[in-house]
Amino acid sequence: MKKLLYFFLLISYISFAQSQKYLLLDNETKLAIENANINFSNGKGTHTDNKGVFSVPKNIEFIKISYIGYESLEYKLTTKTDAIFLTPSTEALNEVNVVKEKRNYKQIFPKKGFNDFLPENFGSDGKTIESILIKAVYIPNESKDTSKIISKIIIHPTDYTSVTLGEKNKHEKQKDQKYAPFKINLYTVDTIIFIPIKRIFEQDITVQLKEGEKHLTYELTLDQQINFPIEGIFIAISSFPKEYYEAIGFKTGPGFKTIGISEKSKFKVYQKSLAFYDDDNPNAKWFRDQYMWDRNNTYYVGLEVY
Q1: Distances (CA, A) of 143 to 22, 109, 151, 231, 305
Q2: Which of 280, 187, 193, 288 is nearest to 229 (CA)?
Q3: 145 and 229 in contact (C-beta within 8 Å)?
Q4: pLDDT of residue 9
Q5: Which of 25, 27, 141, 255 fits 160 for a cystine, CB–CB 3.0-4.6 Å?
Q6: Which ranges of the chain does DSSP label H, i.e. alpha helix?
Q7: What's the chain's Rg over C-alpha atoms?
Q8: Residue in 19, 13, 16 with CA at minimum distance from that of residue 59
Q9: Considering the chain, what percentage of its residues have pLDDT values greater than 70?
């Protein structure tokens, strides 16, 4: 009785909430189904939370729902109801024990090549990114599995060494610069010339390495999580103006760890200058980061998918 009361109260609450929120329930028990995969008609997607709730953008008309032990469902979204029901599969009903789906997490990073051990690359601690530049690293979907969902962005901010030119070159270690904030985003891939083409998130995400941590992990919210596109995706990194950093006690933005990769590696770096263009200006072009390409280097950044 308490379960049914909870069910009707939850339905009432969701009905008055935002129209793009839905509740996924077992067709027989009327209990919530958590961690179900929700694929949108635009190639993106999400999953249900621990209460069976998920959000869908208003411009999506169709979704496909799948979860182990249940029949997959292709569903046309309407405003008539916020509750969607999944029917247990015949095979699942015949089993005595129901085993919950276990997520298989996988991290995708560039692999070090032979040239990572060359003198010019060994021990490289990266450089800060100028505030007029956006750097983007291509992350290929080598498995071509678009059912995988991007859940985390992982980056390695570092301290770095600056050089003052004069009669004698002065090398100065910039300590604790790795804790300076910076901005990240994801970009879709132009499938013809394989450069970044469109931001995934309307606003860049400000992140900052926490003191004592070796790398930064940004966990995407349910609304931010997307399916891993078959053509891959770009991780973009940018910095704030120098005045911003000085105002909060830093000299500049952090450096970022670089590694040497093989010539055939797809984890290449591109860049776009904002010196003369706004970010949304179509005339602001992406180009190869020729210095990184010539040295077969890339930033050590990656994704976690499941």
Answers
A1: 31, 14, 17, 10, 12
A2: 187
A3: no
A4: 44
A5: 255
A6: 2-16, 90-94, 242-247, 290-295
A7: 23
A8: 19
A9: 77
**Tokens 């919210």 correspond to what residue?**
221
Beta strands 21-26; 286-288: pairing state:
unpaired
Looking up tokens 């859940």 gives 151
- Non-local CB neighbours of 54 within 8 Å, separated by 6+ positions: 21, 22, 24, 36, 38, 46, 47, 48, 222
Residue 230 to residue 145: CA distance in whole angstroms: 7
Give dist(CA 176, CA 167) in Å, integer. 28
DSSP 177-198: GGGS-EEEEEEEE-TTT--EEE
Q: What's the CA gap between 171 and 224, in Å, rounded? A: 41
Q: And the tokens for 14?
A: 């969701």
Judge contact between 58 and 51, C-beta under 8 A.
no
Cα of 143 vs its chain's centroid, Å: 17
> What is the pLDDT at residue 141?
96
Whether residue 90 has pLDDT greater than 90: no
> What does the pLDDT look like over 261-282, one tens digit per residue?
999 999 999 999 887 665 556 5
- Does 150 have pLDDT greater than 90? yes
Distance CA 59, CA 41 (A): 10
What tokens does 212 get? Answer: 């004592």
Q: How far is CA 203 from the centre of its chain?
A: 14
CA dihedral (35, 37, 38, 43) in degrees, to 10, reads 140
More confident residue, 147 or 101: 147
The two three-digit tokens of residue 292, written as one number: 């990184």
Check whether 25 has a pLDDT greater than 50. Answer: yes
Give Dmax over CA atoms of the chain in angstroms: 84
**Two tokens, residue 59:** 């411009």
Write the CATH number of the domain with boundaries 2-94: 2.60.40.1120
